[in-house]
Amino acid sequence: MPTPRDVLQLLPRSALAALADRFGVDLPDRRKKAAIVDAVLSAPGLPRDALLRALRIDELKELCRALGLDARGRDKAALVERLLEDRSPERAARGAAGTQGAAANKLGPGGEAGEGRVTTERIVGCLLEAAGLLRRALGPSGPHRVTIAVLLLLKRLNDAEPSTHNISVPAQARWAKILASSPAVDAALDRACVALEERNPVLDGVLSYVDFAGARRSGQRAEHASLLRELVRLFSGLPLGDGDLVTPDTLGRAFLMFLEEVALRDGTGAGERLPTMAVAELMAELLDPSEGMRIHDPACGYGTLLVACATHVERQGGDRRSLSLHGQERSVEAWTLARINMLLNGLPHAQIDMGDALREPRSAASGHLVLHDRVLSAPPFGLAGWGDDVAERDPHGRFRYGLPPRSCGDFAFLQHMLASLTPSGRMAMLAPEGVLFRRGAEREIRRRMLEDGVFDAVIGFPASLLRSTGVRAALVIASRDKPAPNKRKVLFIDASRGGQEGRTRGRLEPEDTARIAKALRSASDVPGLARLVDIDEIAKNGFSLAVRRYIDGGAPPVGGAPAQMWRRVELRNYRSIAEASVDLAPFTVLVGPNGSGKSNFADALVFARDVATDAATAVERRGGIAGIRRWQPEEDERTEVQVDIRAAPSRSALETDYLRHRFSIRGKGDGSWAFRGETIELFVRASPEVSVERTPEGLVVETGAERRVISNGSAPSETASAMVFARQIAEVTRVTALRSVTRIRLDGEVMRRPQIATEITRLDESGSNIAVAFRSLDADGQARVLAAMQRIVPDLSRISVEAFDRFLLLRFEQRQVGGHVARFSASEMSEGALRALGILVAAQQMTGDELLIIEEPEIAIHVGAAQLLFDVLKDASTRGSVLITTHSADLLDAAREEEILVCSYRDGVTQIGPLSSAQREVVRQGLFSVAELMRSEPLRIEGEEPESVQL
User: Fold this and answer.
1) pTM exceeds 0.85 for this model
2) Which pLDDT value is given to residue 225?
3) All domains of the chain in start order, with CATH
């Protein structure tokens, strides 16, 4: 059997040194591999499995191959177990003997007890097989996870030594008795659960959540009993005694992996908002709990974060049993799974309470909140109706920084967690990225918290890190008693480039966790990763905590995806717009009264796209020249649309190393259209290096002090050939840029109709091909759309597309009382739900060179859902450019000041521009939000005077 030293000696010296740094091991000599191995192995309290789990999967596979072990699979825990597996004769003898519970397994078919130790891989496979049986027999909805969890716990309690879990197993709950009870296995399981709960108060209400015999009342007893017999036989072949498992934490990790995988596959259930195990381990690493601490999760879901804290303490050489663990959860299903999760992970002392932490927080007998040393949570994003109706009279004074809006409870959870800390405590909350920059009441709360010095750090994550939502997530670290030197500073950490894109979500690897933890501990600047920022600078940025605002994206990655951004648009004589010259942000919000010309501005950009495709049709569709210039029919001025677009190898290079492409589309006297004034500039480190201008005489090339004209038809010199090549690339970019403009004006009635299957997968303007567009998304995209829709449509469990003859039909499934599922077609869904679906699909389809225009995304959608869609579109703007028009005060307050363009209408002419300096100053001083201003007076652009009122 290879020793830990043998395994470590196979690693390169650099990898060994990184491991040592990861676990804080002092190295007297970094130059010699043997010295590093000695230091790592002699470090007190450092488990050998922790060393291997810090390696990448490809490194673990290479170690397995070098030692002649099976290197198949992508489960990191299973690879570690193979490397650590004891193959000695003594272990073989112990395995043959087995435990009393394992011997009972021989009563059932398929048992393999005694044939080697059980890995996490094997347990997860068994649990997923059980989930498949339940789905096929009962449909995708129902308490399948709890059913499997209860069976798993029953088997574990039977197989393990009583001293392991301190739970008494009565005769009625013995696995052999359950197995022998066919055909009445349903009643036997119910009797076992009742007997266990009566004998053991720690199980009260946990096992009885599942009514195994309930199906007999619906006339399906025979089929249900047959299914349960199959499940019992399946679990009979899975020995779960202490001596059967590879490591003590094998079963607990397997259960967490199963919950994560099922949530990923089904996208349903109370745990779908939970963090992945990697994120949970990161949060525990950053909070660094130690023995004897009180730890709390106010929205604990399945208890993943509490388990991660206990595991962290144990890996540091501490006793997990010394921790006081407490969670609160309002979902009955999630509460049940959390209780079982604690038992399977050896944490029977953990207290998981049922209830709403915001409305009914855990309090001591004195009526005060129970305070904790560490508080961490991943509460539901953007929870509407979170308890604002009782918050003003909160007896615990939790909302001292301000009441969050009713439509979004993110800051309610954040303030509750802060109030639940001891004076020296620390908290971590996983939140939607919008928490960092949304305006209105949330900005005021941020300002007060910043001035009070509670924010320690803000960490930005890669997109798609979480399976549960279509929006980007961030981690907020805060404390009540921040050290004086950094009281007025916040550490920003950009982990968005550390996660690797997996099959369905970004992943955090151990090296990412190590980098982030090291940056947090040092609380100092790390180029491209971390920056310590003074509150004064944050105040100048409108108290925004958006990570990318403070950390330079760094050099673009080699081979990165091309990116494009619309930076400036100039219009002349386009419908009601006589003249406009505005800068566009990656995310732009156009606001103004009805009839002020917002749609005309949006249509001008679409018109540029249509001209690039077919100029004659573009003009004809708008009623000819008179339709385009209909507000100035007597004028001889010609219509012109001028755009300024940047293109770069990657998003991060758009501010430093990019091609700036400017051109205009101008109508000629004969009714035709032409591209004019085309200029391409190459910028390096934000400075112009090369300029190429296309003129009637030829190309004008400027490089520094040199200027030369390449006449049409002449062969360019070797020096100029690169410039010609740049112009040719830019010319292609021009057409691509214009054709990548997408406008969404969804029509609910059109979306409800059966749709003909076509090869056009891009969502069209009205949404008439929504079924085709949704079906074209990959599994990852469909999962993100479903996760977002589940926050808009209660109990939505599935969206699918069915073929009927030559038509495609959208189908929606919604959970009902008793585990039943109701199926709806698109014709039965509300307009708001269909519009939300269309916007989500459009955001998923967005590419790096696209300009996505959505007019009034809030129509027919409730406030909480509109905020979610805003966050989704905000995240999409990190890939391309997004322009929305809106009348919603809530969405306006969520936008940053520099993202807002105001549209006004006076004397038959539309004017467009940024908010006037006077109104900007009012907003910056915190006297009013932009939305509050809009309610009290018209928003004005620079230079526009308020109308006088005659009294």
Assistant:
1) no
2) 80
3) 4-84 (no CATH), 89-249 (no CATH), 267-359+371-549 (3.40.50.150)
